[in-house]
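Need a sequence for this fold. Nothing fancy.
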């Protein structure tokens, strides 16, 4: 299994040295844990794909410590500078025209690179000590639930890794919002996430298209990693607008129920109890996003026959929560419903 290290100066220095020699390290960010390698080292980046079992057609996000570091790997149009000023460091990834120093394996041969300046202090210190950009997708086996604790990474990839940097539980809990600025006059959100698409629109003074709402076509050209089925527990997952009292009455002990907020109705105590979990007892969207993947990981460990989950209100962080829940509940590949869609 991987060694779990806390972000002391000595440990950060050791990990920066290991990354500089082409090693892989699982790292905390404010969104989810990432699996990091030197973004300028093609061989190290290949190892990320092998460790995750991820197809090399799905490009990586490159993490930088500053706007100046972003400018070394990508062209920054004025729109990118405005968004960076508003949201960096933070859960915003921008797809920009890349510079030559970024190897093709990182971008799957595309002329663009996805760039993010993360807010987690341990990750920021590691980036500074490394003095180079770090490519990092989420640190989960391809298609499985994203990790928001070091223990999740250990469970999913521990056998394939030397080191996990433990920065605690992720504060945001869903991945960054990805905005495509490769055509700066027509910015588009490719993945909803930690930052609301409307907030991006307010900064750029225009309405922002959200690609996954505009139909299933052209997925491969947009965000190639955004398959319909993704973030998935092994236990079959079914979604509901609300978990009704009738469903609660029917549910036996082999079933898990994931509520958005604390349910008002109670289970009849004389009947066998399902496993009940709640995203946010008081119904806070931010708290629900923070707990989403941890609850799915926990329920998935229990050997249940099925998980029933309630959708969040479709606003703010609820849009990202519901996007992840819908992908987690999608049919397995080879089913006719599992066509890639735009996100
Ligand atoms: O919050 C996050 O973004 C986390 C943390 C670790 O930073 N990272 C993350 O990476 O979610 P990953 O690999 O799981 O998702 C990255 C997504 C993929 O869907 C990929 O297709 C898309 O970003 N992507 C990367 N480069 C792209 C590019 N040049 N054009 C379009 N989409 C790109
Ligand atoms: Mg991922």
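Here you go.
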């Amino acid at each position: 299994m991987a060694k779990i290290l806390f972000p002391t100066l000595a440990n950060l220095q050791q990990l920066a040295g290991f990354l500089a020699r082409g090693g892989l390290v699982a790292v905390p960010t404010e969104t989810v844990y990432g699996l990091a390698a030197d973004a300028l080292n093609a061989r190290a980046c290949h190892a990320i794909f092998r460790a995750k079992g991820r197809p090399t057609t799905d490009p990586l996000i490159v993490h930088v410590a500053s706007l100046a570091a972003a400018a070394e790997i990508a062209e920054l149009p004025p729109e990118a500078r405005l968004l960076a000023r508003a949201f960096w460091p933070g859960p915003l990834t921008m797809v920009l025209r890349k510079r030559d120093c970024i190897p093709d394996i990182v971008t799957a041969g595309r002329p663009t690179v996805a760039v993010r300046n993360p807010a987690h202090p341990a990750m920021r210190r590691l980036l500074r000590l490394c003095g180079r950009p770090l490519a990092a997708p989420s640190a989960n086996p391809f298609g499985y639930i994203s990790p928001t604790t070091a223990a999740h990474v250990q469970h999913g990839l521990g056998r394939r890794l030397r080191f996990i940097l433990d920065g605690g539980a992720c504060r945001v809990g869903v991945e960054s919002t990805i905005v495509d600025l490769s055509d700066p006059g027509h910015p588009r959100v490719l993945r909803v996430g930690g930052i609301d698409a409307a907030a991006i629109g307010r900064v750029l003074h225009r309405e922002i298209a959200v690609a996954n709402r505009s139909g299933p076509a052209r997925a491969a050209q947009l965000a190639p990693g955004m398959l319909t089925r993704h973030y998935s527990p092994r236990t079959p997952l079914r979604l509901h607008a609300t978990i009704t009292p009738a469903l609660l009455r029917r549910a036996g002990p082999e079933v898990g129920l994931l509520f958005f907020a604390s349910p008002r109705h109670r289970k009849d105590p004389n009947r066998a109890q399902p496993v009940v979990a709640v995203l946010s007892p008081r119904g806070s969207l931010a708290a629900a996003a923070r707990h989403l993947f941890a609850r799915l990981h926990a329920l998935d460990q229990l050997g249940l026959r099925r998980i029933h989950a309630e959708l969040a209100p479709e606003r703010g962080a609820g849009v990202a929560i519901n996007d992840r829940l819908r992908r987690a509940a999608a049919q397995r590949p080879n089913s006719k419903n599992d066509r890639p869609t735009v996100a």
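For context: The longest helix spans residues 285-300.
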